[in-house]
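Appendix B. Extra example for self-study. Work through it before the problem class; the solution is given directly after the inputs so you can check yourself.
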Amino acid sequence: MSIETTTQDQRSNEKPLIDVRNLQTAFFTDKETIRAVDGISVNIDAGETVGIVGESGSGKSVTARSIMGLVEKPGQILKGSSARFHQLETVKAYASEFSDHTVEVSQLRDQHNPQDLLDRIQSDISPETFDRDNRSDITLTDILAAGYGDKLGITSERDCVFITGRSGNRPENITSGFIELTRLEGEMQRKMRGGRITMVFQDPLTSLNPVFTVGNQIKEALDLHRGLTGEEATREAVELLEAVGIPDAGRRVDEYPHQFSGGMRQRAVIAMALACEPELLICDEPTTALDVTIQAQILELLEEIQEERDIGIMFITHDMGVIAEVSDRVNVMYAGEVIEKADVISLFENPKHPYTRGLLQSIPGGQGGDRLQTIEGNVPTPNEPADYCRFAQRCPKAFDACDVVHPKHVEVSEQNDHTAACLLYPEEKSQAGAVSLHREKGKAGDGDRMRGEKQ
Amino acid sequence: MSQNLVESGAEVSSDRRREREKLVEIRNLKTYYGESGLFGGRPVKAVDGVSFDIFNGETLGLVGESGCGKTTLGRTLLQLEDATGGEVRYDGTDITELSGDELYQWRRNAQMVFQDPDSSLNDRMTVGEIVREPLDVYEWGTPQECREHVKELLDIVGLRPEHYYRYPHQFSGGQRQRIGIARTLALEPDFMVLDEPVSALDVSVQAEIINLLEDLQEEFGLTYLFIAHDLSVVQHICDRVAVMYLGNIMEIGPTDELFNNPANPYTHSLLSAIPKPDPTATADRITLHGTPPNPRYPPNGCPFNTRCPARIRPPEYEQLDDEIWMGINTLRDVLLERQRADRSLRERIRERLGRQTRFASVDETYDDLFGHLNIPQDAASVLDEIVDYAADNDEDQALAVLTEEFGSVCEKESPEYSTVSETGRQSFCHRHSEEHARPSEVLDERY
Ligand SMILES: Nc1ncnc2c1ncn2[C@@H]1O[C@H](COP(=O)(O)OP(=O)(O)OP(=O)(O)O)[C@@H](O)[C@H]1O
Ligand code: SF4
Ligand code: SF4
Ligand SMILES: [Mg+2]
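Solution. Structure tokens for the complete assembly:
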């Protein structure tokens, strides 16, 4: 089956809110190319919290910034990366406002066969490039979203709204589609960032301007994204501050950020984020700088907000305790890659990847008294293509193949969607069998793994 | 030795208990900042009268929220900060009285390791020079001996001899912390204050440093004061723990007891706030509202009374709904806040123009807090009175009425230390006296 079928289209309403596939972001410095994010795939549904955990330098923040379109030079998102925002209302709004940048994939299907297109693409590609298992699974949508349509003359560089299903000609008739975040620019980018997707950083002062009152900053967001001004905006700003638990909001709305305590500032930032009624909230270590008692307040607040507004949350932290508490599903990152993903319970009760296991064992507490387990060495900087296991130098289970074969994600338990990228799996296979499976997965396409082609 | 055994009066199971001789005795220690300040204003009471002992060879943990005075206390113990009052007896000598050469000589015994390995090492010195510096300062041995000693120290902390000539920026965070530790060990101190030594490190690296610290203690018989906000690290490494809040020690005692069966309401709250790396853990969480008060304006009575979930309520309002109590607490926070806040010029002008912003917003706050609740007549009339004062911008009077009516011994009198277990654990709370319910009972009931 090589042609995208309508069944696949109809499924699209159940698609995740955001679907990140093979995201790759590299920093091209004079000395080296740092593959800060090296082919990660993550998806988040509305109302769900997906955790991203990893040690310093593992690429968590770059992941968040890539989705937000905040990667700055010398950083770049590489071709083959895709981050699809599926929220239907937003897709309709974009299709009507930016019709010049809208691609009707449903109509293009008659003219293009994905398999033929794949043959014409010059770059190294494999099913993995599109986060697919088999070449025959690759769809036209995959090819276009990953940015290969431009050279093939199907899309133009600024196209970013992709319509995959409609029941009529008008924007309201769109039944499925997405906005490709890695292709957004200018006005389209501004409306997305801070409008549909907002971010809360570790340091609230990065989001707050010291020379304006907190109220004015919230009102600015209200004006920009919801067209509220004057009295109405003031009232809404006060209500938002109240909603995030700032007492005496009527007075505090006129105060400056420096008059707020750390926890209160983070609340104000969250109020600002909510001002735009986002669908997706990306939180990068939002509580790391706070005391535990204040952290507890903020986590409680986020949970309440999520329940009320059904937003999707990407929650980034290095703290395993926080991850356990907030996440529905977890991705563990190491040196730019996601090395294990699972629902939160499986991950903690039944970790499979040697790194995840080591990480959980090195947390003090629980085992009490005993010597702490450690992981020798440090997180390496991912400055070469990953054609080996980046954890091999520190892994207590490493064997020869680990230095020459890149582990792929494979199912590691009966629990659905629990995968790890380690050559020890699938467990039921012999070691040689497992290794050749990983090797095959890497080769399954025509080419090898992506070698960092700029977009 | 046998003498000590008798004194401790217990069958000694752990090696550490055996030497329960006091190394440091701290009595009513106070460190205030800006006391004699130009403005003659109120001092910041960073450490506000603490008393405890540190035993030879133990690791005493010091935990609490940021700004509660942990670092100041640590620094005062080493006389890196001048004590405002009280005593620090170290092997019998009150070091707050030392000065000049005596202090300088004493300092060799006691050293500090800092939180941030990045900023505490001079990037223009080689690792060798950094570790050596204290030796040079104290004119320790010949250059040859110093170099040998430094190499030995590098080896002890798990660095290699060739690292001697490298610069700190060539090292990872964990290795930099090792450099800092080597430097601290140079003069062979007995006592070390470790101020958040692993907070800036990744978990897997942090574990190595913790293991190193434990090894060093074993090998050299060191005594540690271990300051941290990460309670799981403290639980792992410390023999005893002191819990600090707003310049006071709220509870102090053996680690296991304190973690498994906390006595003080603040310890209860702090422990319950820690997220556990176990997604199935049922979070029976006590979420504290608000933030710790400004140490320039600590509350009267118990330092924790503005946030305490177990605060004693006056008997006539014992039956009042928890939600109403929450409202009263928030109202009090708001009033305290306003009492202190500088009224901006703009606000004053607006007031004069008859647009009484504060008036309007007190009413709003009141509605917000109590509007949806059914308040009994007696409480309602007092609340009305309070709001009237507040609307007149008389926060002092409003607060006085609030405390008079809804306050209790928690607002009026400072608690005293009570011994709460056989090991001599101490807790600073009125609820340990006979006439009140125990903190844990109250918390069970209220949460
Ligand atoms: N502007 C930049 N220029 C060059 N390299 C960068 C830049 N920003 C990030 N990197 C590199 O990308 C990698 C991933 O960094 P990132 O900030 O995403 O890590 P992180 O997981 O968020 O770490 P932390 O826990 O410390 O916040 C690191 O090797 C980092 O040095
Ligand atoms: S692939 Fe090899 S080195 Fe990597 S985690 Fe698995 S066993 Fe360890
Ligand atoms: S004295 Fe009162 S306010 Fe202080 S901890 Fe005890 S119950 Fe709470
Ligand atoms: Mg980060």
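Self-check: The first helix of chain A runs from residue 6 to 10. If your reasoning did not lead you there, revisit section 3.
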